[in-house]
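Notebook entry, structure prediction.
Reason for the run: the old model in the group folder had no record of what sequence produced it. Starting over properly, with the input documented here first.
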Amino acid sequence: MLRSLLLLIASSIAAHAIAQPSATAIATWQLSADNGATWNSNALTLPQTQTSVLARCLVTVNPQGFSGSGPVHFAQAFFETHWRSNGNAGLNDSVSNVQVIRPAIPQATLRSTPSFTSRFGSILKTAGGTTSSPPGSGTPLNALNWFDGLANPRPTSDPIPVFQYTISLDGTIGDRTISGLWRGASLSLVDTAPAGSILVGQYLNVEPDILIAAPITDIPATLTIIPTPTTLALFTITSLFATRRRRP
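New structure, fully documented this time:
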Protein backbone atom coordinates (compact mmCIF):
# COMPACT_ATOMS: atom_id res chain seq x y z
CA MET A 1 0.00 0.00 0.00
CA LEU A 2 2.71 2.46 1.03
CA ARG A 3 4.84 1.41 -1.94
CA SER A 4 1.95 1.99 -4.34
CA LEU A 5 1.31 5.42 -2.85
CA LEU A 6 4.97 6.41 -3.18
CA LEU A 7 5.05 5.23 -6.79
CA LEU A 8 1.92 7.26 -7.53
CA ILE A 9 3.47 10.39 -5.98
CA ALA A 10 6.73 9.86 -7.87
CA SER A 11 4.96 9.41 -11.19
CA SER A 12 2.86 12.50 -10.54
CA ILE A 13 5.99 14.56 -9.81
CA ALA A 14 7.69 13.22 -12.95
CA ALA A 15 4.67 14.03 -15.09
CA HIS A 16 4.60 17.56 -13.67
CA ALA A 17 8.32 18.00 -14.38
CA ILE A 18 7.91 16.82 -17.97
CA ALA A 19 5.02 19.24 -18.47
CA GLN A 20 7.09 22.28 -17.51
CA PRO A 21 7.75 24.41 -20.61
CA SER A 22 11.31 24.95 -21.80
CA ALA A 23 12.99 26.26 -24.93
CA THR A 24 16.27 26.88 -26.67
CA ALA A 25 17.02 29.53 -29.27
CA ILE A 26 19.41 30.04 -32.18
CA ALA A 27 20.67 33.43 -33.39
CA THR A 28 21.76 33.24 -37.04
CA TRP A 29 23.74 36.14 -38.51
CA GLN A 30 23.40 36.84 -42.22
CA LEU A 31 25.00 39.18 -44.77
CA SER A 32 23.57 40.75 -47.92
CA ALA A 33 25.46 42.42 -50.77
CA ASP A 34 22.31 43.47 -52.70
CA ASN A 35 20.44 45.59 -50.17
CA GLY A 36 18.52 42.68 -48.68
CA ALA A 37 17.30 41.01 -51.88
CA THR A 38 19.25 37.87 -50.93
CA TRP A 39 20.91 36.83 -47.67
CA ASN A 40 23.91 34.61 -46.97
CA SER A 41 24.43 32.69 -43.73
CA ASN A 42 27.85 31.60 -42.42
CA ALA A 43 30.04 33.10 -45.18
CA LEU A 44 30.06 35.63 -48.01
CA THR A 45 32.94 36.50 -50.38
CA LEU A 46 32.98 39.86 -52.19
CA PRO A 47 35.47 41.88 -54.29
CA GLN A 48 37.22 45.03 -53.09
CA THR A 49 34.85 47.14 -55.14
CA GLN A 50 31.97 46.33 -52.77
CA THR A 51 31.44 49.44 -50.64
CA SER A 52 28.87 48.19 -48.10
CA VAL A 53 26.85 45.21 -46.87
CA LEU A 54 23.77 44.68 -44.74
CA ALA A 55 24.02 42.46 -41.67
CA ARG A 56 21.06 41.05 -39.77
CA CYS A 57 20.22 38.57 -37.02
CA LEU A 58 17.39 36.03 -37.12
CA VAL A 59 16.22 34.26 -33.95
CA THR A 60 14.58 30.84 -34.06
CA VAL A 61 12.97 29.34 -30.95
CA ASN A 62 12.71 25.61 -30.32
CA PRO A 63 10.02 25.12 -27.63
CA GLN A 64 9.29 22.00 -25.59
CA GLY A 65 6.57 21.16 -23.09
CA PHE A 66 4.27 24.11 -23.81
CA SER A 67 0.58 23.25 -23.52
CA GLY A 68 -2.02 24.70 -25.84
CA SER A 69 -1.74 25.77 -29.45
CA GLY A 70 -0.32 29.25 -29.02
CA PRO A 71 2.92 29.95 -30.91
CA VAL A 72 6.19 30.37 -28.99
CA HIS A 73 8.44 33.19 -30.22
CA PHE A 74 11.29 35.47 -29.29
CA ALA A 75 10.03 38.02 -26.72
CA GLN A 76 12.94 40.16 -25.47
CA ALA A 77 16.73 40.35 -25.14
CA PHE A 78 19.59 42.65 -24.20
CA PHE A 79 22.53 42.26 -26.59
CA GLU A 80 25.40 43.91 -28.44
CA THR A 81 26.96 43.23 -31.84
CA HIS A 82 30.63 42.63 -32.62
CA TRP A 83 32.06 43.30 -36.09
CA ARG A 84 35.45 41.63 -35.66
CA SER A 85 38.44 42.27 -37.95
CA ASN A 86 41.00 39.61 -38.80
CA GLY A 87 44.40 41.25 -38.72
CA ASN A 88 44.34 44.62 -40.49
CA ALA A 89 41.20 43.90 -42.50
CA GLY A 90 38.32 46.28 -41.91
CA LEU A 91 39.86 48.44 -39.21
CA ASN A 92 38.21 51.48 -40.81
CA ASP A 93 34.83 49.87 -41.51
CA SER A 94 31.89 51.83 -40.09
CA VAL A 95 28.29 51.20 -39.03
CA SER A 96 25.04 53.08 -39.79
CA ASN A 97 21.25 52.64 -39.89
CA VAL A 98 21.01 50.46 -36.76
CA GLN A 99 17.57 48.83 -36.46
CA VAL A 100 16.16 46.63 -33.68
CA ILE A 101 12.79 44.87 -33.39
CA ARG A 102 10.40 47.10 -31.40
CA PRO A 103 6.62 47.32 -30.88
CA ALA A 104 4.71 48.83 -33.78
CA ILE A 105 1.34 48.67 -35.44
CA PRO A 106 0.25 46.22 -36.80
CA GLN A 107 3.13 44.06 -35.49
CA ALA A 108 6.66 44.23 -34.13
CA THR A 109 9.05 45.47 -36.81
CA LEU A 110 12.67 46.54 -37.26
CA ARG A 111 12.93 50.21 -36.33
CA SER A 112 15.78 52.69 -35.99
CA THR A 113 17.08 52.80 -32.44
CA PRO A 114 19.55 54.91 -30.42
CA SER A 115 22.93 53.22 -30.56
CA PHE A 116 26.63 53.83 -30.19
CA THR A 117 29.47 52.17 -32.12
CA SER A 118 33.11 52.25 -31.10
CA ARG A 119 36.23 50.21 -31.72
CA PHE A 120 38.06 48.12 -29.13
CA GLY A 121 41.07 46.59 -30.89
CA SER A 122 39.77 44.19 -33.52
CA ILE A 123 36.13 44.57 -32.38
CA LEU A 124 33.73 47.22 -33.66
CA LYS A 125 31.06 47.11 -30.95
CA THR A 126 27.50 48.40 -31.41
CA ALA A 127 25.34 48.76 -28.31
CA GLY A 128 22.69 51.05 -26.80
CA GLY A 129 22.90 54.44 -25.13
CA THR A 130 24.99 57.42 -26.11
CA THR A 131 28.43 56.17 -25.04
CA SER A 132 30.19 52.88 -25.49
CA SER A 133 31.89 50.76 -22.83
CA PRO A 134 34.21 47.79 -23.47
CA PRO A 135 32.57 44.63 -24.86
CA GLY A 136 30.29 42.96 -22.33
CA SER A 137 29.58 46.13 -20.34
CA GLY A 138 27.62 49.37 -20.64
CA THR A 139 24.12 49.85 -22.06
CA PRO A 140 23.01 47.04 -24.39
CA LEU A 141 20.59 47.14 -27.28
CA ASN A 142 17.05 46.15 -26.26
CA ALA A 143 15.12 43.98 -28.72
CA LEU A 144 11.43 43.66 -27.86
CA ASN A 145 8.76 41.62 -29.64
CA TRP A 146 5.77 43.00 -27.79
CA PHE A 147 2.50 44.83 -28.33
CA ASP A 148 1.60 48.49 -28.67
CA GLY A 149 -1.95 49.45 -27.76
CA LEU A 150 -4.35 47.09 -29.51
CA ALA A 151 -1.73 45.76 -31.91
CA ASN A 152 -0.87 42.10 -32.30
CA PRO A 153 2.93 42.25 -32.26
CA ARG A 154 4.37 39.01 -33.46
CA PRO A 155 5.34 37.70 -36.86
CA THR A 156 3.50 34.47 -37.61
CA SER A 157 6.48 32.14 -37.84
CA ASP A 158 10.16 31.77 -36.98
CA PRO A 159 12.83 32.86 -37.68
CA ILE A 160 12.15 36.42 -36.52
CA PRO A 161 14.46 39.27 -37.64
CA VAL A 162 15.55 41.09 -34.46
CA PHE A 163 18.42 43.27 -35.70
CA GLN A 164 19.87 44.83 -38.86
CA TYR A 165 22.49 47.45 -39.75
CA THR A 166 24.62 48.72 -42.65
CA ILE A 167 28.39 48.26 -42.68
CA SER A 168 30.47 50.57 -44.88
CA LEU A 169 33.63 48.74 -45.98
CA ASP A 170 37.09 50.31 -46.14
CA GLY A 171 38.21 48.14 -49.08
CA THR A 172 40.94 46.22 -47.29
CA ILE A 173 41.43 42.56 -48.19
CA GLY A 174 40.70 39.93 -45.55
CA ASP A 175 38.02 38.58 -43.21
CA ARG A 176 35.51 40.21 -40.91
CA THR A 177 33.06 38.32 -38.67
CA ILE A 178 29.68 39.49 -37.35
CA SER A 179 28.36 38.00 -34.10
CA GLY A 180 26.24 38.87 -31.08
CA LEU A 181 26.87 38.92 -27.35
CA TRP A 182 23.62 38.03 -25.56
CA ARG A 183 23.46 39.70 -22.17
CA GLY A 184 20.17 38.38 -20.78
CA ALA A 185 16.74 40.00 -20.58
CA SER A 186 14.43 41.71 -18.11
CA LEU A 187 10.80 42.73 -18.50
CA SER A 188 10.03 42.76 -14.76
CA LEU A 189 11.42 41.49 -11.46
CA VAL A 190 9.91 38.10 -12.34
CA ASP A 191 10.42 37.84 -16.10
CA THR A 192 14.20 37.78 -16.43
CA ALA A 193 16.84 35.78 -18.30
CA PRO A 194 20.54 35.40 -17.39
CA ALA A 195 23.47 36.22 -19.68
CA GLY A 196 23.64 33.84 -22.62
CA SER A 197 19.86 33.53 -22.83
CA ILE A 198 16.76 35.44 -23.98
CA LEU A 199 13.10 35.61 -22.99
CA VAL A 200 10.67 33.66 -25.16
CA GLY A 201 6.90 33.72 -24.85
CA GLN A 202 3.85 31.71 -25.76
CA TYR A 203 1.37 34.08 -27.37
CA LEU A 204 -2.26 33.22 -26.73
CA ASN A 205 -3.61 36.77 -26.99
CA VAL A 206 -1.92 40.06 -27.93
CA GLU A 207 0.83 39.58 -25.37
CA PRO A 208 2.73 36.50 -24.16
CA ASP A 209 0.82 34.58 -21.49
CA ILE A 210 3.89 32.50 -20.59
CA LEU A 211 7.43 33.89 -20.48
CA ILE A 212 10.54 31.79 -19.82
CA ALA A 213 14.31 32.12 -20.27
CA ALA A 214 15.86 30.19 -23.16
CA PRO A 215 19.61 29.61 -23.72
CA ILE A 216 20.65 31.05 -27.09
CA THR A 217 23.32 29.74 -29.47
CA ASP A 218 25.00 32.43 -31.58
CA ILE A 219 26.01 31.49 -35.14
CA PRO A 220 28.33 34.15 -36.65
CA ALA A 221 28.76 35.03 -40.33
CA THR A 222 32.09 35.83 -42.01
CA LEU A 223 32.70 38.33 -44.79
CA THR A 224 35.80 37.81 -46.95
CA ILE A 225 37.01 40.65 -49.17
CA ILE A 226 39.22 39.59 -52.08
CA PRO A 227 41.01 41.53 -54.85
CA THR A 228 38.85 42.43 -57.83
CA PRO A 229 39.55 40.28 -60.94
CA THR A 230 41.20 43.20 -62.77
CA THR A 231 43.40 44.02 -59.79
CA LEU A 232 44.40 40.38 -59.42
CA ALA A 233 45.20 40.07 -63.13
CA LEU A 234 47.31 43.24 -63.07
CA PHE A 235 49.16 41.98 -59.99
CA THR A 236 49.87 38.65 -61.74
CA ILE A 237 51.17 40.33 -64.92
CA THR A 238 53.35 42.71 -62.89
CA SER A 239 54.78 39.83 -60.87
CA LEU A 240 55.59 37.82 -63.99
CA PHE A 241 57.25 40.84 -65.62
CA ALA A 242 59.35 41.47 -62.48
CA THR A 243 60.35 37.80 -62.37
CA ARG A 244 61.50 37.82 -66.00
CA ARG A 245 63.56 40.98 -65.47
CA ARG A 246 65.39 39.36 -62.54
CA ARG A 247 66.51 36.37 -64.62
CA PRO A 248 70.22 36.50 -65.69
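Summary: The chain has one domain: 22-246.
The old model has been moved to the deprecated folder.
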